[in-house]
Amino acid sequence: MAEAVAEVGHARYTYRLRVSSTARAALLAEGDRCRWIWNECVARSRAVYLHNKASGEKQTCGPAQLDKMLTEARRTTPWLRGGSSVVQQQVIRDFGRSRAKAHKDIRERLPEARRAGMPAHKKKREALPSLNYTQRGFRLKDGRLHLAGGTVVGVVWSRALPAEPSSVRVYRDGLGHWYGSFVVPAQIQPLPQTGRVLGVDWGVSQTATTTSDTHDLPHAGHGRKAKEKLTRYDRMMARRKPEKGQPASKGYREAKKLRAKAHKKVARQRQDTGRKWAKKVVLDHDAIAVEDFRPKLLARTSMARKAADAAIGATKTALIEMGRKHGRDIRPVHPAHTTMDCAKCDARAKHRLPLGMRTYTCTACGTVSPRDKNSAHVMLVRAGLNPAGADGTRPPGAPLREAA
Questions:
Q1: Using one digit for the tens of pLDDT, what is the confidence trace for 346-393?
Q2: Which residues are CB-neighbours of 107 under 8 A, at least 6 positions away?
C-alpha cells in the first residue's frame, strides 16, 4: 500500500462491537437518557417558536440555552445525572446542527422534497440508540473500548486505525448488532500516474456507462434477486400485524427481524459492488468526470424501483471517496442537457430525446453512437478533459489539456 503523504478532512472507520449483557444494559440506559434530552430540546424549540409567533418577540433556542437546560435537568434529576455528560452534550450539538440545516433550507427556499425537516420527537419503540463520544469520553486500552461511565466493550479489529481517533459513535442497527464508528484524519494514499481519463454517465439499464467498455458497471439486480424472499417476509408480517395500540406478537417480531436481515444483506451487496468498481476505476485513471446526478429525480417515475436497486447514489459516493483517498482528480459535471449534446461537435438536439431511445444521432454532424456512451463523452468535454481516443487514452506523462 502506498505511503500516506497528506491529510484531507476526516474519515470514518466502523467496526463491529462485542457487547456483554452488562454493557448492553448500560448503553441502552444511556440511549434512553439521550432520547429524553433530544425530545426535551424539540419541545423547548417548538415552545420558543410558538411564543415568538404569538408575541412578536425574538427569543432564541440555541446550544447556549439548551446547555443551561441540561445543567438544570442534571441537577434536579438523579436518573439523568447518572449518565455521562459528554454524550448528553453531544446530543445538544447534534440537535443544533439538525435545526440549523432545516432553517438554512427554508431560507434558501429549497423545494419541500429536498428540505431537511425540523427535528422531531424520537419514539422509544422506533429510535435506535446512537451515542457520540468525544476524546474526553472514551479511550482505547488493550484493544478494548472504554466509554465514559465505566462501560467497556470489545472491538472486532478487522483492520488497524491509521491514526488516533478524535471521536467515536456507538450505535445499534435494526438487527440488534452494535457498531463503533471512529473518526480519524483522512490521508491521501497516492497511486502511480496512468495517463488516462474517464467519463461516467449514470443510468438504469446500466448503473454506470463509461468511455471505456471495460469499466462499465452493469446493473447487478441484488434487490430483484432477493424479491421473492422479501415478499414472503412481508406476507408473514401482514398476517401477524397487531391491532393499533396492541403489542406485537413474537411471530411478528421474528418476521420483522428476518425482513430487516434480508434488506441488510442487499444493502451490503450494493455497497460492496460499488466499492469494488470504484477501486478499479480509480486505479486505472488519473482524472474522472462524473455526472453529478441526483437519484431522487427518478423516485417518482416508473423506473423508481430499478433505480433504487442500482444504488446510484451510494456508488457515486463510493467513487468520490475512493478518488479523494488516492488523490485522483474527480470532477462533478452538471447533468443538464447531457443526453441532448453531441460529444463530437457540441451541437444540441432541438427536442427532448425519449428515455427509451438507445442510439444518439447528431443532426449537425451526423455522428451515430450509443446514447449513454455519447453522454459519458460529454462528461469529459464539460469537465475540461481532452482525450485523444474514444476510450479516453492519452500518452503516459502527457498533461491533461482542457478542451477549447
A1: 777 765 665 556 777 777 777 777 888 888 888 888 888 865 444 444
A2: none
Residue 17 and residue 154 in contact, taking contact as beta carbons nearer than 8 Å:
yes
Query: Which residue would you say has higher pLDDT here, 340 or 189?
Result: 189
Q: Give the pLDDT score at 356.
A: 55
Say if strands 368-370 and 130-134 run parallel, antiparallel, or are unpaired: unpaired
Q: If residue 101 lies in a helix (H) or strand (E), which one and from where to where? A: helix 85-107
Q: Whole-angstrom Cα distance, residue 31 to residue 133? A: 12
pTM for the whole structure:
0.81
Q: How many Å apart are CA 345 and CA 365, to the nearest integer? A: 7
Residue type (1 letter), 261? K
| Amino acid at the residue 243 | E
Q: Which grid cell sits at 197?
A: 481519463
Q: How many CB atoms lie within 10 A of CB 367?
A: 15
* CB of 360 closer than 8 Å to CB of 353: yes
Question: How many residues would you count in the chain?
Answer: 404
CA distance from start to end of the chain: 38
Spatial CA neighbour of 83 closest among 120, 122, 36: 36
